[in-house]
Design brief:
metallopeptidase activity; Collagenase (Catalytic Domain); protease; 190 residues; three-stranded mixed beta sheet; globular; alpha/beta; zinc; hydrolase
Amino acid sequence: MRLKISLIPASFSIENRDAALGKIADYLETYLQENGIEANIEIKEEVKLPTGLIKKLKHSTVITDDESALEFIEGLQIDGQKFAITQYKMSDEVSPKVIGISSPGRPALLISWESLGKENDLDKICIRAAKEIMHELGHNLGIIEHHTWGYECAMVETEDNLGNFSPENIDKKTYKFCQDCREKLKIPQQ
């Protein structure tokens, strides 16, 4: 399998943004290769999400319609897979904290940098971002979340017992697809 990937900063104006994007691209390339997926990753210029999707709250700024944000990313005139990162939190009707969003068969995904944690360790947050991108890519390629292999598969859910998505659970899981997922993706077993 070979993918053309655009890593897109979407309303993503954090300190050390270029360094973060470079690290995420490097981790992602390694993770994809170790999963038997060849990729050409290109970092694109920043795009601004439509202001109607962003709501300023008392202590934070949130994307309240993550599905419309994903549709916006998908509509960008860019070939291949569109992997976008925003600085804002995301929420939906089901969960007050969403780390990423994607849909089967669609060439786009969006993850929230803010939801990846507050640590000052850029590497740690970039690793979380790359792992979350692997998880969302799995959804794009038609794989659903499962617990068959536990944290030994990128497709395990990152929710805690209360249904909240947890950055610490991203740390626990691998970036690799399990044997079941690899079979579905028609990737040779390791």
